[in-house]
């Protein structure tokens, strides 16, 4: 699993309130808290959680017994300014691990994108977190 060994670790808080309390920013960082919330949901179901970083980045690579099962990207609000970056990282991870598709979790958006036979399903958090 070279993707685990090459890249430094990401750190998540067990309590999302800690993210806000320790933030050096005077504005709320919804993106970080949102990603942390999705991580906590994934942590309940997966022991092996990594992230992927090459040309792009994918927030979560979910593995069972060393076999990658899913890739998940998290973006609070998918918009014109960040769409290319978010989808590039997700599609790169899908291709790298030989998967058919992946998931992009947003606060409240639904969509679907296809590229080179791979699918990216955009789902709202309220749906993703209850599955």
Describe the SSE topology.
Elements lengths: L1 H5 L9 H6 L8 H14 L4 E6 L3 E8 L2 E8 L8 H14 L4 E6 L4 E5 L2 E7 H4 L3
Parallel strand pairs: 3-4, 4-6
Antiparallel strand pairs: 1-2, 2-3, 5-6
3D architecture notes:
By secondary structure, the protein is an alpha/beta fold. It has helices at 2-6, 16-21, 30-43, 83-96, 125-128, and strands spanning 48-53, 57-64, 67-74, 101-106, 111-115, 118-124.
Relevant terms:
alpha/beta, globular, 5 helices, 131 residues
Short description:
The protein has helices at residues 2-6, 16-21, 30-43, 83-96, 125-128, and strands at residues 48-53, 57-64, 67-74, 101-106, 111-115, 118-124. With 131 residues, it is α/β, with parallel strands linked by helices.
Helix share, percent? 25-40%
Distance between the first and last residues' Cα: 27 Å
User: What is the number of helical segments per DSSP (H or I, 4+ residues)?
Assistant: 5
- What is the succession of H and E elements? HHHEEEHEEEH
Counting DSSP E segments of at least 2 residues, the number of strands comes to 6
Supply the helix-strand structural class: alpha/beta
Mean pLDDT equals: 86
Fraction in beta strands: 25-35%
Spans of at least 5 consecutive residues whose pLDDT stays below 50 are 1-6
Largest sheet: 6 strands, mixed
Could you tell me the radius of gyration in angstroms?
14 Å
Choose one word for the global shape.
globular
Question: Order of strands in the sheet with the most strands?
Answer: 1-2-3-4-6-5
